[in-house]
Amino acid sequence: MTGKPYRLPETAAKGSRIDRSKQISFSFDGAKMTGFTGDTVASAVLASGRRVMGRSFKYHRPRGLIGLGSEEMNALIGVGEDGRKEPNLRATQVELYNGLTATSQNRWPSLDFDVGIINNKFSRFLPGGFYYKTFMWPRSFWEKVYEPFIRNAAGLGEAAREHDPDTYEQMHVHVDVLVVGGGVSGIAAAYAAAASGKRVMLADENPVLGGVADISAGDIDGFSQADWVAARSAEFEKSGNCHVLTRTTVVGHYHHNYVLAAERVCDHDPDLLARGAPRHRLWKIRAGKVIVASGALERPIAFANNDRPGIMMASAARAMVERYATSPGMNGVIFANNDDGYLTALKLHEAGVAVSRVIDVRKDVPSGMADAARAAGLNVQAGAAIAGVETGAGGKQITGVKIAPYAAGRGRVVNEEKVECDFVAVSGGYNPVVHLWCHNGGKLRFDDDIQSFRPDRHGDPITVVGSANGSFDLKTCVEEGFAGGETAARALGVKPARSQKKPAVKAQGTGPIQPIWFAPATGKYNEGNKHFIDFQNDVTAADLELAQREGYESVEHTKRYTTLGMATDQGKTSNINGLGIISDATGKRIPEIGTTTFRPPYTPYSFGSIAGTKKGELFLPVRRTAIFDWHKKQGATWEPVGQWRRAYCYPQAGESKQDAINREILAVREKVGLLDASTLGKIEIKGPDAAKLLDLVYTNMFSTLKVGKARYGLMMNEMGFLMDDGVTVRLGDDHYLMHTTSGGADNIVAWLEEWLQTEWTSLKVFVTPVTEQWSQFAIAGPQARTVLDKLDSDIDLSPEAFEFMSYREGTLAGYPVRVFRISFSGELSYEIATPSGYGRGLWDALMQAGRSEGISAYGTEALHVLRAEKGFIVIGDETDGTVTPHDVGMSWAVSKKKADFIGKRSLDQAFLASEGRKQLVGLLTTDPQEVLPDGAYAVETVKSAPPMKMIGHVTSSYFSPTLQRSIAMALIEGGQGKMGETVSFPLEGGKTVEAVISSPVFLDAEGKRQNV
Amino acid sequence: MLIIQCPVCGAEGDETDFHCGGQAHIARPATSDPDNIADGDQRDYLFMRFNPKGLHFERWRCDRGCGKWFHAARDTVSLEFKAYYGITELPPADVMKQATGQWADFFKQATAGRPAAKKAAKKTPARKTAPAKAKKS
Amino acid sequence: MSDAVYTSPLAHVAGSRDGADLSISISEVSDRGMIDLRGEAGSVKFRQAAKAALGIDLPLKPRTTAVKGDMTVLWLSVDQWLVCCPRNKAGVLTDKLRKNLGTVHSLVVDVSDARAIIRLEGDNAREVMMKGSSIDFTLPDYKAGLVRRLVFAEIAALAHIVTDKPCVIDIYVFRSYADYTWKWIEATAKPAATIGLFGAGSQ
User: Fold this and answer.
1) pLDDT digits (tens, 9 = 90+) for A471-486
2) Each residue's pLDDT tens digit, C181-195
3) Are residues A908 and A941 in the same domain?
4) CA angle, residues B84, B90, B96, in degrees to nearest 5
5) Is the domain of A473 the same as that of A495?
6) In chain C, residues 2-61 whose CB comes closer than 8 Å to chain B
7) What is the pTM (predicted TM-score) of this model?
8) Distance of CA A120 to the CA centre of its chain
9) Residues A208 and A172 placed together within one structural domain of the fold
10) CB spacing of B133 vs A718 below 8 angstroms
11) Number of structural domains in chain A
12) What residue in B sits closest to C147 (Cα-Cα)?
């Protein structure tokens, strides 16, 4: 649809925000359009003559602009292309720049012709709660029929599918006073608070401060409101203790005055973005005091078909004319229940926009504003309401309204008068924006004077001022703000360094408002009349009444049943009107009904800002060992272990991963391999009670360990379940070095500290993590000693001098080293540690020395297969937090001598001591080439379909190149008593694998290979 | 996001710089008499916890600061910290007095036959009164 | 055999960044030795033995440092300090501490290779810190000499404000996080992302 261009000539309206000398072009749904610097997409599209800017959620009705800023619920657009596309932006908030691409939403194939409008025709079948009524059965329809239908028909914009090329960031700041909202109240608050010298932050969601100061009547300190605002802004800029954030929406208030604010840094300025600024910045603010000056939002009036394009809020119509010199139409009517509508009427009239009628619900219209309107020659009709809207072009534009006398509580209307017009400016009074006040438990009370909820009590250091507090006249707004700022500073314990003079306000008083929750129509609801309450979710007065009839008495139930006040809008304009309808339907007063919960965020903010810097390679912290670059150069594939990246295997040219793994394993079994084991947790433990501590945290005994010797230890938690294992070495009488699993390193340090600090407080032990101090390598294989012997060392490596399970300190190839003769592969093996800075050097030296022996680096998968061949458990594979040492056949490591150690008593609890627990066994598949999947279930009896009784599961499963067959470990009920029995594992796709239960030690049960 | 102050080192910071260790003042049966623990006592020690609406007593660790454990009295409704005190101490007497329900019973037993309880609480060196909410250092 | 080859944690990121394309300059401090010292602050014997080895009193006030010559002692906890000295002196100093402390309950570990140190230098350094941690580095307490453990960019770190003018902050992170931390700072310290909080650092 195209209409007339609605840009007013400069002589009629200047347009305070726009610069007519700077024309910019943009596109809307592919159509080229122009606007001026300072325009929003809403003002520029409207100025071009386009009324329809979106389609509604459920009925796909054509919708036009309604609001002024973030409360806009109809004109939602997607902005940008490809990865930069952001959906669901309010056209009223999107500032125009050259080349901007905007697309309307929720329409197919086009905005002007939408197939989904058929929902409107069938709307009698889509009443409140229709999701619940329609899509419940048959159940099988849900996935294939209903869900795709709902997803296609409903919903808002579409998210980009491409990678977002822009950057985002977060910023933390602590301030003394945070003022939310930069209207005159907020400015007065910041002005007074900043005078104390305390740190003040003022955040406002608009590009400039002032709120509606520029389109409101009244003076401050003898200046126009706009000039007063400009003067204060300039002061803040220079102050050094008042930081102003514009284009920043405070989206949430949380415990202990933690506040989230979303700043749109570059959305208005592609050049800034190109220079590398973050697109959005999420502020995490800690405030001593929060002053809420979030203002008020004008509310619609529910009359028949009040959603037609051309019907908008009176304040929005006024702002369109005064800020953007854009007229909402050629000829309008004003529909109001309060004095503010008259200001719009007068401003439009002054700008040369025809206003053919001012319709006032009130029978007795207060003089003042009404007189001024009459004096200007406007036709004021009191005690009347709009009963209906006449439309043309398939509902896409209005041609007139029907006016009928109004008396509260009357049902159907009989007499009506038709007045031609192409737009309607509606003023149903103002609702304080109480969202932020309520996020963390602020209470509200209903105020009959303003016919709305206003803030009442709050447990946090937070106050509310101005129209957010329900104080709508300028004088109170400014005075409350100023007092709020002063009080906040005082409460923080400062005497103002300089005191500001309280601003003096001159403004005309206003008359009372008359509530109108419903303007009756001439027909019935189902005869084409829809009284919209929640425009975004297509909730009508009839839906709410139906919900009451169907027994959804609690307003929270009504909300969920009808979707009133849900989604991005969060009830900004619909909440009070909805309550008014419920009140009329139930006969309860609004305060008795109460409100629904206001939840953060106040407006949506981008996922980008939530992620901040944490994307791409910074998505998660990644830990690298000192050998990382070497692994990378060798073409390693990676295994994430906690935050570490460990080399999984090193495929060479032409090798598959499995080929590489097999080659690495055979190198260790037949020649020699080198493993980067630097990620192993390492903890130095020292003190007169160090041995005592170890005896308490390990299941086995460490006080008996001789100096220079190493012992494998098992750790349980207090519930008797395995949580860590590793080799601990006695460095001295009172000094141990503990090794933990890679994943457990940090936790075990914290675990030891916790017990020392909170339970065994008399033990004298210090614990220092040294994981990162050391690079540590395992050199394993029959040739390990041969390779080490080639390097200069002061350590005697001969089997007689350096026995299995012992420890030496010295130098190797000029590097300071700690050498542990321990083995996780079952082969002759040394673990060699050197300070991390020397790690790479020593690694290179070892690889060099081992070349003639055919040394091969091996990765974590080879490590796992090697240990599985030997039946060694891995915490987290064979254990899952419910497995005891007895379950994994390691009762030998559970001391019977020690009176107490962590988890000991729990092992005797009935559940853990019972028969038939799952026990660790080995599995040999009947087909040696068949490798069981990890986690496969063993069942008692294989049936054609589940359920089947599960008797265990596979914990580790590999192909062993050493044994040339598949091997696995599993936890099987009573498994240790079932050696030689066959168990069945039904897999996906109907296949069943059978395996024979065996010992989990598949290779060298006597341990000859490691002890040479 | 709570603000917490460590009574050991005085550092104040976001909840994420700390670690909550659950309910405070749970006695470990095995520490005193490992050979005589009834199944029920061990079960209670491991699994039974108070879940009060209102004043609660917890263990916290200055996880990213000095690394020390401490006790805190926190209101589970207002989320206000009423007191911080040492990891081996009972709460300050005035805070202990505000405890209700299971906690009131617990402290009654814990201080029974201990006339010095009040005095002991008073001289706790680590105790700090919780700062006014959201007050900054 | 050749001499041992030493590789610093950030050797793979070429040299230091002079700030031409960043709002601050960042560099790796690779010549610093570090000794983790544990002991009972309440023990006079411990304090005296430590002082005898270091030539300086241990800082006992939380989050403070003690400086003497080329040595700086950072307070880490009520029973833990990080002694920073030239890298080539760390071994000798470790031995000296152990010898002086003798049987006094303590734990001395040379951890010179456990951490990477990144130096942030420039007016915007505090702001960059605040983009990565919940601590406000513009508060009055956060002046030269302050040391604080914190969560920076989701990892455990230690920040030491070395000087105020020019603003120099050393961030200590465990070695394995060096590359991540460096890249995080590079991504965050873009000149166009400068905020100029409360008018600070703005031209």
Assistant:
1) 999 999 999 999 999 9
2) 999 999 999 999 999
3) no
4) 80
5) yes
6) none
7) 0.93
8) 34
9) yes
10) no
11) 3
12) B65
**DSSP H or E segment with residue A924:** strand A918-925
Q: Give how far A258 is from chain B: nearest CA, Å.
A: 7
Are the C-beta atoms of residues A877 and C44 closer than 8 Å to each other? no
B67–C77 CB contact, under 8 Å = yes
Domain B3-129, what fold? Folate-binding fold (3.30.2270)
Q: Are strands A807-812 and A815-820 parallel, antiparallel or unpaired?
A: antiparallel
Residue B65 with chain C: CB contacts under 8 Å? 77, 148-150
Backbone angles phi, psi at A868, to 5 degrees: -70, -35
Tell me which residue has tokens 């040339």: A964
CA closest to A258 among chain C residues: C134
With contact defined as 3+ CB pairs under 8 Å, the chains touching C are A, B
- Do residues A869 and A988 share a domain? no
Residue-level pLDDT, tens digit, chain C, 203 residues: 458 999 999 998 866 666 568 999 999 999 999 999 999 999 999 999 999 999 999 999 999 999 999 999 999 999 999 999 999 999 999 999 999 999 999 999 999 999 999 999 999 999 999 999 999 999 989 999 999 999 999 999 999 999 999 999 999 999 999 999 999 999 999 999 999 998 764 33
Give the other-Cβ count within 10 Å of C196's Cβ: 13
Q: Does A271 touch chain C (CB under 8 A)?
A: no
Model pLDDT for residues A377-435, shown as the tens digit of each residue: 999 999 999 999 999 877 788 999 999 999 877 666 777 899 999 999 999 999 999 99
Interface of A with B (CB under 8 A): 174, 176, 254-258, 286-289, 459-461, 718-719, 750, 753-754, 757-761, 899-900, 904-906, 909-910
One-letter identity of residue A776: Q
A74: tokens are 């109809």
Q: How many Å apart are CA B47 and CA B29, to the nearest integer?
A: 13
**Same domain, residue pair A800 and A882:** yes
State how far the Cα of A179 lies from the Cα of A186, in Å rounded to an integer: 6
Is B64 in contact with C150 (Cβ distance < 8 A)? Answer: yes
- B66 and C77 in contact by Cβ < 8 A? yes
- Of residues A169, A644, A792, nearest to C188 (C-beta): A169
* Residue pointed to by tokens 């007074």: A192
Closest-CA distance, C30 to chain B, in angstroms, reads 24
Q: Residues of B with CB below 8 A from C80's CB? A: 66-67
Which chain A residues have a beta carbon less than 8 Å from that of C136?
172-174, 286
* Cβ contacts from A onto B, under 8 A: 73
Q: CA–CA separation, C11 vs C7, rounded Å?
A: 6
| Inter-residue contact A253 to A600 (CB < 8 Å) | yes
* DSSP E strand stretches across A293-370: 296-298, 311-313, 331-336, 354-360
Q: Count CA within 13 A, CB hemisphere, residue A304.
A: 25
Residue C170, min C-alpha distance to chain B (Å)? 17
Q: Which domains does chain C have, with CATH numbers?
A: 25-30+114-195 (3.30.1360.120), 32-110 (3.30.70.1520)
Task: Say yes or no: B67 contacts chain C, CB-CB below 8 A.
Answer: yes
CATH code for the domain of A903: 3.30.1360.120
Do A811 and A671 fall within a single domain?
yes
DSSP A114: B
Same domain for A977 and A901: no
| Strand-pair partners of A738 | A683, A728
Nearest-CB residue to B134 (from A287, A750, A759): A287
> Which residues constitute the domain of residue A219?
168-296+432-506
Please indicate if any CB of chain A lies within 8 Å of the CB of B68.
yes
Residue among C78, C134, C135 whose CB faces B8 most closely: C78
DSSP C13-32: S-S-B-SSSSSSEEEEE-SE
Tell me how close the Cα of C55 comes to any Cα of chain A, in angstroms: 23
Pairwise CA distance, residues A940 & A923, whole Å:
16
- Tell me which DSSP letter residue C176 carries: G
